[in-house]
Amino acid sequence: MANDSSRLRISAVNDVVRIDFVDRDILDEATIRQIGQDIQRKLEPMTAPKVLMCFGVVEHLSSAALGTLITVNSLVKKKGGTLRLAEIRPEILEVFYITKLNKHFSIDESAEAALKALA
Amino acid sequence: MPARIEGHAILRGPRAEIDASQTAVEQAMAQHGYGREALFAVRLALEEALVNAIRHGNRHVPDGQVDFRWSVDGDEARFDVRDQGEGFDPDAVPDPTEDDNLEIPSGRGIMLMKAYMSEVEYRDPGNHLAMVYRKSKGA
Lengths: 119, 139
Fold this sequence. Notes:
Distance between the termini of chain A: 19 Å
Order of helices and strands of chain A: EEEHEEHEHEH
CATH superfamily of chain B: Histidine kinase-like ATPase, C-terminal domain
CATH class of chain A: Alpha Beta
Largest interface: A-B, 22 and 23 residues
Number of strands of chain B: 5
Helix content of chain A: 40-55%
Strand content of chain A: 15-25%
Structural class of chain A: alpha/beta
Number of helices of chain A: 4
Number of domains of chain B: 1
Distance between the termini of chain B: 16 Å
Number of domains of chain A: 1
CATH class of chain B: Alpha Beta
CATH topology of chain B: Heat Shock Protein 90
Oligomer: heterodimer
Helix content of chain B: 25-40%
CATH superfamily of chain A: STAS domain
Largest sheet of chain A: 5 strands, mixed
Strand content of chain B: 15-25%
CATH topology of chain A: Transcription Regulator spoIIAA
Strand order of the largest sheet of chain A: 1-2-4-6-7
Order of helices and strands of chain B: EHHEEHEE
């Protein structure tokens, strides 16, 4: 178990890096920047990382947070890895559909389903 | 039903100022019976509006301020956000939903405001944003 940031809970599930957000709101720019840096630092030394990001507690996120997710996805793809998002509340999921980012990300209803897809 | 509730704040940038304004708006809307869907929509749109004004609108304005005025009654919530920058052309912002633009990390704020609010208007020269949320739009 690694705990790189107070805003994230990062753990290993077999060969998958599981990242759980711990805050209800992902809005503050400084926090979002910190989240991006923490994830980047975790993934930087890895090859073809399998990454699961869980949004179970997240109630609000901003376009800046979406930007960080896109940046993380680009990094994971560049490394030949896979990123899946899971446990997204319906209101937040709607944001992904409005921005058509549902086409850009692989999204699963549950962490279990995502882990199965990443296996 | 309570009378119309109004608020005004000068925002200079610290997160706490945005949070305080958001909380005041949320409480006024709750008093007027707006539901969870409405609160989510307005919070998201206001977040984008205020952060855009502070970070982008006032980017080249030393010690810039954002003037934020709002009012809430039983039918609608109105918001005016003015920064001190030169403004911009919102129509010149690329459509972030185009396939070629999906991987660009920025540029989604305006479209989210338009999606969640009943009216969104940038007034000339683009440094004054007026938004309306009508209760009939959501809960």
